[in-house]
Design brief:
This protein is an alpha+beta fold. It contains 7 helices and 4 strands. It has 2 domains: 71 residues, Arc Repressor Mutant, subunit A, CATH 1.10.10; 78 residues, Glutaredoxin (3-Layer(aba) Sandwich), CATH 3.40.30.10.
């Protein structure tokens, strides 16, 4: 069987079997918290597990989640494309998310986002040619009092970001 290409939609049965087994093992304790006739309600945790294991929640991962939860692939797609925490395509080694909601824009985030797009040579949601950084504009990071805010790799929240601090953040992404 040829290796799975994550950039092309495919059937979940084309996903690496060892990763599917990891997915099933991680999903099993989650499903124990749901009544058997309501397991489709576990779509968010299932997609999160799938994204963690497969690197993104693309079409094949959505299909796998739908299959395991007894619902339609369309339902999985609805959830995966509604929430910004899910990535339906592979991302770069680092994910840089900048809030452009009202408070952050008033503090200059919109200008910094435009500066980042030019500097990295990408559009919103794009990945640098070297695959190092994916840049995404997000609606709100919940740091309105310490705006502007940037989230790095879904783990490190940077607040009161200035253009200089932004350069420091970029320099640290190796």
């Amino acid at each position: 069987m040829p290796p799975h290409d994550p950039t092309k939609p495919g059937d979940w049965k084309d996903l690496p079997k060892d990763q599917v087994a990891r997915f099933d093992a991680a999903l099993a304790p989650v499903l124990q918290r749901y009544p058997p006739d309501k397991k489709e309600a576990a779509m968010i945790p299932a997609l999160r597990i799938g994204q963690e294991i497969f690197g993104h929640a693309g079409t094949a991962v959505q299909q796998l989640c739908a299959e395991r939860l007894g619902t339609s692939p369309a339902r999985a797609e609805e959830v995966a494309t509604f929430y910004v925490m899910f990535h339906t395509h592979p991302t770069g080694k680092h994910l840089l998310e900048i809030c452009t909601n009202v408070s952050c824009c008033l503090a200059g985030a919109d200008r910094m986002f435009e500066q980042l797009k030019r500097r990295l040579g990408v559009e919103n949601g794009g990945t640098t040619k070297d695959g190092r950084i994916t840049l995404r504009e997000v609606e709100c990071l919940g740091s309105c009092g310490t705006a502007p805010a940037v989230l790095v790799d879904e783990k490190v929240m940077e607040e009161r970001v200035s253009p200089q601090k932004l350069e420091t953040i970029l320099g640290g992404l190796q």
